[in-house]
Amino acid sequence: MLPASNAYDFPLLIKHLLTNASRAHARQEIVSHPNTRLSYETFERRVHQLAHSLNNCGIEDAMRVGVMDWDSNRYLECFFAVPMMGATLFTINVRLSPAQLLYTINHGAPDLIIVHRDFMPLIDEIKSGFERDITIIPIGDGDGYEAWIGKAADRFDFPDFEEARTATLFYTTGTTGNPKGVSYSHRQLVLHTLGLLVGFGVWPGDAGFHRGDVYMPLTPLFHVHGWGFPYAATMLGVKQVYSGRYDPDSLLRLIADEGVTFSHCVPTILSMLLERPSAAHIDLNRWKVIIGGAALPRGLQDRAAEAGICLHAAYGMSETCPFLTVADLSSDDPQIQAQTGFAGPLIDLRVVTPDMEDVPHDGEAIGEVVARAPWLTQAYLDNAQASDALWSGGYLHTGDVGYMREDGSVQITDRLKDVIKTGGEWVSSLALENIASSCNGIEDVAAIGMPHEKWGERPVLLAQAAKGANLEDLRTSVLRAVQSQVDAGALSKWAMPDLLLFVDQLPKTSVGKLDKKQMREDVLKYSDIKS
Amino acid sequence: MLPASNAYDFPLLIKHLLTNASRAHARQEIVSHPNTRLSYETFERRVHQLAHSLNNCGIEDAMRVGVMDWDSNRYLECFFAVPMMGATLFTINVRLSPAQLLYTINHGAPDLIIVHRDFMPLIDEIKSGFERDITIIPIGDGDGYEAWIGKAADRFDFPDFEEARTATLFYTTGTTGNPKGVSYSHRQLVLHTLGLLVGFGVWPGDAGFHRGDVYMPLTPLFHVHGWGFPYAATMLGVKQVYSGRYDPDSLLRLIADEGVTFSHCVPTILSMLLERPSAAHIDLNRWKVIIGGAALPRGLQDRAAEAGICLHAAYGMSETCPFLTVADLSSDDPQIQAQTGFAGPLIDLRVVTPDMEDVPHDGEAIGEVVARAPWLTQAYLDNAQASDALWSGGYLHTGDVGYMREDGSVQITDRLKDVIKTGGEWVSSLALENIASSCNGIEDVAAIGMPHEKWGERPVLLAQAAKGANLEDLRTSVLRAVQSQVDAGALSKWAMPDLLLFVDQLPKTSVGKLDKKQMREDVLKYSDIKS
Fold it and tell me: Between B3, B6, B194, which is nearest A195 by CB?
């Protein structure tokens, strides 16, 4: 059937996410710490002004605009204005080392970068290494940026174009090799926004994310689009709170003062907040937090539950936009809340053998988690070899290992590269970490596999003890806890660590994940493994 | 950026709606009156078997399969199997007159029709007029169909194809001219499913449609895909109930016995249920009902509220898949519950003048409602002229008249063709009907414009009185009610009807809408209008 000559063939473009947000929520607020409060109507006007300002700086169609800023209304305005112009938003990871930062900027090749003054020293340090001319727009919290966009016209004609056009670009922060560029199209981001809302929103009661919530991200916006929630929150038209530079006490105050009900973060951030003395004086009973980016340690989960926080796990990665799974949000059973959970709408998630055969869905058989979804990165930027490996067999390989239960829910047990292969068994480093982290006096812990001549690898624990803890007692209690799981048959006998080392601080990557590659190097330096 | 050579470029296909439904909800039920209960796992197997059975009958890629059946698991299986094969599902309106039915079958040109035995007499009556060979598969409730699909293999290889492929076809039932064919692609139906779930699902508390609901449609599945909810309910994996032939007492019993919590229907169906004596004995307090297809009369709304039903209005039409707007589902204010409501996600809904200028959003200025959305029919089948008119100015014209409030919510006040144009004023026929239906003793009412030499048109009311009502008293109370609204300034003085006729039954279309064309003809026969 031929469409009518004048029919509108609706392309999935980011600008369509704004259509009803500004119309229906003219009086709802977007709050940006320390001193900005915008109505949605004003926010939309500013998106238009930002586009004009970028255009005045020579930015057109298909160019790339980098951003180095704290979470703010400014960043959210870039989330919309830059792709809506047809340009690519390059969300630069400000936590990278100067060398990695320079690498990603030269590789990602932005035409312009908007830089908060806090990051100007970083730019000054590396700019002599820039391989192209880049316009730098230095901004501040209230000044700079306001002067820049304030005088621009407030009606930009955002064009239609093909939905496959690239909207965003950023770099993954793996522990091996150079950062790799991943990008997403308008279509992918619009579908991800709908998928996220169906996956997190369609729950009974107060569970999940819905129109009544007040949203504050605790995952920086440069990290996988703040997990996509800023787009979803804006389309829904809820109150949003952007916190500027993450300062624990200020974050807690914002939660209380603005009535924040929904956030998402990695375990480290939540742990950091709960450790503040001021946390005890704030009512966190209405706060729902989605934990991702790393496994949810049982100890942290218990501390959060004591504080009244409603915590659930979710799962995804830089290459998946990121939404893949979420735990049963209607459950208040801690075991179920911490599960990797169920695949979101449309997502075909499998647990497979190296030959791409499904493992039995018995809650035990281990394999690699692979996926198809309408919002998975189709390639690494200019890296065909890594791209083909990512999509080996026509499914995106997460590099995570886990099992599927009979009910279809998935459990990640480890990173493929962190699984400890010993004596012909696969021992989950996460399982060991969970047991150890439940012991009183253990603040942070990592399990790694160290090379072993006879057994392939052997498990080693690195732990950070609470101040004043008796290390020998602690060592005994951790090893006893592991042994009791072995005795109970929950762990293979090969899981007993050969070594438990106490350290001041566990090495982490720029996004707060355990840096096991560094740990293996450190351990090799410090000790000889029994062989 | 080039995709990896092996990347899966996820086309939006109906088969993807099933991916997690069957995996995660193997033990959830699909109930079909009178005696079928299926797990989702069994349901999925039957979808594969149905595809094989159709294939054995010669159905391939791009052919058309018609269905004439009551709401049932069989129909739901067709919703999936037929488009998933690559064929087009033609949902035949069994309520059409034999002449219209024959017209749509010849125009829609199915290769095969699955016909419930209740509709075989209808087929026998018209089949001599078929302009092509059509395979007829006669089925019954438990037999026929079961024997047909029961022996088929249970693994059909549903292929990938382009998402723009036509998935469904059906005919609009306008009151003028021949029925017009509208069709939807896989992409449109997948996007509609996501949009429906975001629009109806992302609400706090128990409001809207969510994973905890038990779903039973009360809009026949042949009518705009049962408003799209069967696809959404299946993707979500909730318990579903299909009721067979609509029998009021049986429907009420199903609501009670199966714990139905969510339905949708036109006002007539709800009214029919509430009139049954057995309704008084059933607890309807957990039942949420979405009303669409016609305005929600205040009288019916009050009766439903008394019964404890949670009622909200929504808006759409055959040409819009159908979701366009829904009232604020979190409101329990009857005024707000009955509003046409807010445009759903991504939907660009406007109220415009004949020149396509937006009317002021002041809750007063009237214009035609037009829309863009990712799921609007792109054309009428083989009718370029009507298609171009439908999409005049690049927006789909709903043919409905209304206004927009400052908060962005819309109110439909009439059909463009039903507005009574009198003395230079536009009088809403719906406004008159609302006033009259609130009078005790009025069971059903319609306001129409009758041609008038001097004033263009003049309003006439046709009413159906309750049994035993004193018609003269009733006439006085209706006219007094209209006069008091005129006196209060809520209605123009031109709105006073010239005539109030009592009739045994108001003429309705095959889908239960007031047939005002028929009424105008009837009134011309019965009376001379004052001039």
Answer: B194
Question: What whole-number distance in Å separates Cα of residue B260 and Cα of residue A54?
Answer: 54
Token match 């004052």: residue? Answer: B530
Q: What is the CATH number of the domain that holds A517?
A: 3.30.300.30
Q: How many domains does chain A contain in total? A: 2
- Residue B531 forms part of a structural domain: no
Contacts B9 to A, Cβ<8 Å: 378
DSSP-assigned beta bridge partners for residue B444: B464
- Beta bridge partners, A458, equal A450
Residue B453 is predicted with a pLDDT of: 86
Residue A530 has pLDDT above 70, yes or no: no
Summarize pLDDT for B439-453 with one digit per residue, the tens: 999 999 999 999 888
Nearest CA in chain B to A88: B1
Together in a domain, B402 and B425: no
Q: Are B64 and B88 in contact (CB under 8 A)?
A: yes
Which residues of chain A lie closer than 8 angstroms to B206, CB-CB?
204-205
CA-closest candidate to residue B351, choices B391, B404, B294, B292: B404
Contacts of A23 in chain B (CB under 8 A): 343, 408
Collect all residues of chain B within an 8 Å Cβ-Cβ radius of residue A376: 7-8, 10
Separation CA B288–CA B206 (nearest Å) = 9
B238 touches chain A (CB under 8 A): no
- In the predicted structure, residue B383 carries a pLDDT above the cut 50: yes
Decide if pLDDT at A152 tops 50.
yes
Same domain membership, residue B212 and residue B73: yes
User: In which domain, by residue range, is A47 found?
Assistant: 14-410
Contact A379, A387 (CB under 8 A): yes
Cα-Cα-Cα-Cα torsion B182, B12, A188, A314, nearest 10 degrees, comes to 120
Note whether A473 and A400 are same-domain residues.
no
For residues A380 and A386, what is the distance between their CA atoms, to the nearest angstrom?
7
Q: Does B360 touch chain A (CB under 8 A)?
A: no
Across the interface, of A210, A373, A379, the residue whose CB is closest to B203 is A210
Residues 113-132 of A with CB under 8 A from B: none
Chains A, B: CB contacts within 8 A come to 208
B221 in Cβ contact with B94 (< 8 Å): no
* Tokens at B315, concatenated: 């808006």
Q: Give the pLDDT score at A531.
A: 38
Q: Are residues B325 and B425 in the same domain?
A: no
Average pLDDT over residues B176-199: 94
| Interchain CB distance below 8 Å, A210 and B198 | no
Residue of A nearest to B209 (CA): A202
- Give chain B's mean pLDDT: 93
CA distance A292 to A196: 14
Structure tokens at A64: 């790339």
Mention every residue, 6+ apart, whose C-beta is less than 8 A from residue B142.
B35, B36
Decide which of A176 and B410 is more confident.
Answer: B410
Min Cα separation B89/chain A (Å): 14
Percent of chain A with pLDDT over 70: 98
**CA–CA separation, B379 and A375 (whole Å):** 29
CATH number of the domain that A172 lies in? 3.40.50.12780
Backbone angles phi, psi at A409, to 5 degrees: -80, 150
The predicted-structure confidence for A3-55, as pLDDT tens digits, reads as follows 898 999 999 999 999 998 877 776 789 999 998 999 999 999 999 999 999 99
Residues B25 and B107 in one domain: yes
Please indicate if any CB of chain A lies within 8 Å of the CB of B517.
no
With beta carbons under 8 A apart, name residues in chain A contacting B7.
Answer: 376, 378-379, 387, 390-391, 394, 396
For tokens 């038209």, name the residue.
A237
Of the candidates A319, A339, A291, the one whose C-alpha atom is nearest the C-alpha of residue A389 is A319
Q: How far is B59 from chain A (nearest CA, A)?
A: 20
Residue A247 CB contacts under 8 Å (≥ 6 apart), including other chains: none
